[in-house]
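Reviewer 2 asked us to include a model.

Predict the structure of this chain.
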Amino acid sequence: MKKLINAPEKVVEDMLTGMVAAHPQYVRKLSGYSCLVNPQSPITNKVGIVSGGGSGHEPSHAGFIGRGMLDAACAGNVFSSPTPDHFLEAAKVVDSGAGVLMVIKNYSGDLMNSQMAEEMAEFEGVKVTRVIVDDDVAVKNSTYTTGRRGIAGTVFVHKIAGAKAAQGADLDEVKRVAEKTVANVRSMGMALTPCIVPIAGKANFELAEDEMEIGMGIHGEPGITRCKLAPADEITSTLLEKIIQDLPFGKGDEVAVLVNGLGATPLMELYVINKKIAEICAEKGIRIHRTYVGEYMTALEMAGASITLLRLDEELKALLDAPADTIAFKQF
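Predicted model (structure tokens):
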């Protein structure tokens, strides 16, 4: 295993310390917890937005703390959920009295621990509610989930819920637009190589040099098929066709596109993927309002990518277009 770490059991702590050292204007660490929060929290009369999950998906989730997005993010061990006390403490710190929305990806550990945190918060007088993101169209159930997985479409939920909260909307309204985003976002990914979880010290699955996996999850969960490597246009068509058919997206729809690298995919290749997305959408009469290309939700050093489409109406479009200023997402 070749990694720039000190010790596998300290990698998350070291990462969070390094993030705070680099970006003190965006994040501070809660003492005794693997949580980063906006240094200005709580923001008066604003609904707090908390997310989190296993580490190894950076910049998700702490990279999206800041104006117009998250107020706090909890970091579990690599590919493992934060425990309930972390979610609870983050919610308490960012609560201004307006309540807190937790944005949770659909994985068993995240669901269980965030639900426990929600119940504990109620006992302590903090109003907390959740939205569950399940945007992955690849498989119905997986190693970590009952139902669809939550993957990179979660970033759009962060953006839109965060924008609504920044407008001063109440908790019910913030949750409503978050759920509306979940209902209209679909994603699917693929992998060219595995990744190495530091504590394991070895690849979490195997692919031959001429193989790829379609529908791979962000923790290395199996996809829908393992097949021979194909040209980028063919791969993109396979992913996008399943995404389009699922909602379905149709002629006249306006969408936002997210082309997400999984950690070891050059921007060159992500833009090659986006070229084909633009062509297919034009052929189908699907209008692209905004496109985001880069690394938003990774899987350590896995090579591969995911595609996300979000169907927009005027409300979602305005919230998507609103300003944001975070470590990894800036829009002015």
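The helical segments are 11-22, 84-94, 108-123, 154-166, 171-184, 232-246, 267-284, 314-321. The radius of gyration is 19 Å. We have added this to the supplementary material.
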